[in-house]
Amino acid sequence: MPSLGADMVDGTLVEWLVKPGDTVHRGDVVAVVDTSKAAIEVECFDDGIVTELLVPAGTKVPVGTVLARLSEEATATESAPVDVMVTSPLVRHLAQERGVDLRDVVASGQGGVIHRADVLAVTTEHDSAESHSERVKASPLAKRMAARAGIDLHSVQGAAPTAAIVAEDVLRAQSVPLPDVHTDTTPAPERRTVDGTADPMRSSIAALMSLSNREIPHYYLEKSVDMSVMLAWLTEHNRERPVAERVLPAAVLCAAVARAARDVPQMNGHWIDGTFHPANAVQLGMVVSLRRGGIIVPIIKDADSLTIPEVMAALRRVVERARTGKLRSSDLAPPSITVTNLGDQGVDSVLGVIYPPQVALVGTGSIHERPWAVEGLLGVRPVVTLSLAADHRASDGAIGGRFLNKMERILQSPEEL
Amino acid sequence: MTPNEARTLIQRTLVEVAPDTDISKLSDDADYRQHLELDSLDFLLFVEKLSAGTGIRIEEYDYRELLSVKSASEFLVAHSADTAQTEHPASS
After folding, report:
1. Alpha-carbon distance A221 to A373, whole Å?
2. Residues with Cβ < 8 Å from A149, sequence gap 6 or more?
């Protein structure tokens, strides 16, 4: 089960689109998976022949579970797990968060690859045996189920105060899913739907954002930028072009974030195991709000190497897929930096919450006409306020300032993009 | 294109762009970008579909005439006449 977003704990295999004996290629859609947010088309990561489907349709499994086996055509006896899309930085991040030494973890993946489930298995032992002074009495099945569901046994009520927790109690706790992916006991805020059950979309957002606010010492910077040169360039570019080829300011802002992230690499990467790991390219996460509520964060792949029209095309593609529920697993690969554009909602600026383990989130407000002084003269210019929320563990304000200044220079010389 | 045809096309296109929204309460004068919470990408898609559905060329500076059902249908009616004349000069 691939990780389809930093807040995903498990997924339900809805449908297999291949069967044993089928030849598949890298990038083929092989299955449909339902997360708490959307149905996602899962792409195959390699070429080969499907030998075995391990997870039947309709089953909910944790991230990291092997879904199927492939054999390479040349060496038909060897099989490889289909889930190498599991992002090791996230697994390592989980381990760090839970205080698990990865050397203690029994790897279930091929070639010693450690999956999220392996880390979770160790954590349950930690939880029940060591980290808590008060040991929870629970049946082995209840422990396993709680680990799989990411439930802290301390939050589960037994039939009586002194009774051991059994599977049934865990099931009851699961029906009100606490997004407890941390050893911390602070309950994450939840929104209940009208009928009183937790909304899974809200729960997963709540879990990740609470983690961010608990762990990341954010600092915030803002900068207002004159957009007149950029808008003039856009008007010129869009003139006489068919609607499908027109570029929106949102795409230009995304392109500028990507270029600035490439030039200021301290903003582009992940904070894992107490150190910053810069990313090689810019995988730009885009916060897309869904009409039925909630958000999803697909990526524009290698956004720093795309031209503005290419960014625009990618933006249209991922937003349309996100809103029509046709995202693919590659759209939900881990971003290296995220941008949220609330300009269309008419807000001036947004001071965001970083998506761990990323270290920066860029916000863009609406482009408004404002009084603007240049060399002692007052004029009216279209102005946008850019904001940066950055992780103070990974960078300091001076670096963040350099990032916003870089964005300003890029936005004022669109011909260089 | 008659005003009624234009109106129907606009409403149908809005539903295509923003499914799950209720346009029955949308008044003719209301700015549907605010009313239906359309972002700039939704609006671009709306313009693209209108243009494709009518064959009318819509430039960026025309967008301001497309912000309510009333003004947009007036725009479509006025410009569909142009399109008909340029495409079929003999028939007019």
Report:
1. 21
2. A10, A170, A173, A174, A177
Q: Does B20 touch chain A (CB under 8 A)?
A: yes
What is the C-alpha separation between A281 and A258, in angstroms, rounded? 9
The tokens describing A30, both together, are: 């092989």
Q: What is the mean pLDDT of residues A189-205?
A: 67
CA distance A340 to chain B (A): 13
pLDDT at A182: 37
- Per DSSP, the three-state class of A26 is coil
Report the pLDDT averaged over residues A174-179.
Answer: 43
State the average pLDDT for chain B: 84
With an 8 Å Cβ cutoff, the interface of chain A facing chain B consists of 235, 238-240, 242-244, 246, 248-250, 291-292, 315-316, 319-320, 343-345
Q: pLDDT higher for A160 or A26?
A: A26
Burial of A58 (0-12, 13-18, 19+ CB in 10 A): exposed
Task: Tell whether B44 is within 8 A of chain A (Cβ).
Answer: yes
- Chain B CB contacts of A254 under 8 Å are none
Predicted confidence (pLDDT) at residue A181 exceeds the cutoff of 90: no
Q: Which of A153-167, B44-58, B71-85 has the highest mean pLDDT?
A: B44-58
Instruction: Give the model confidence (pLDDT) of A96-126 as tens digits.
Output: 667 666 666 666 665 566 767 777 766 655 4
pLDDT above 50 for A408 = yes
- Where are any strands of DSSP class E within A199-262? 218-226
Q: Residue A277 forms beta bridges with which residues?
A: A270
- Closest-CA distance of chain B to residue A395, Å: 33
Q: Could you give the C-alpha distances from A358 to A81, A207, A219, A251, A352, in angstroms and in order? A: 27, 16, 14, 21, 13
Collapse the DSSP code of A394 into the 3-class scheme (helix H, G, I; strand E, B; otherwise coil) and give the result: coil
Cβ–Cβ gap B40/A248 under 8 Å:
yes
Q: Parallel, antiparallel, or unpaired: how do β-strands A29-34 and A275-278 relate?
A: unpaired
- Residue A10, SS3? strand
| Residues of chain B positioned with their CB less than 8 A from the CB of A320 | 45
ipTM entry: 0.80
Number of CB pairs, chain A paired with chain B, less than 8 A apart: 37
What is the number of other CB atoms lying within 10 angstroms of the CB of residue A67? Answer: 22
Flag if B41 and A235 touch (Cβ within 8 Å): no
Predicted confidence (pLDDT) per residue in A30-53, tens digit = 998 888 777 888 988 888 889 889
A291 and B19: CB-CB below 8 Å? yes
Q: Identify the pLDDT of residue A204.
A: 86
- Closest to B71 in 3D by CA, of B27, B41, B35: B27
Max CA distance (Å), chain A: 77
Return the residue of B nearest to A312 by Cα: B41
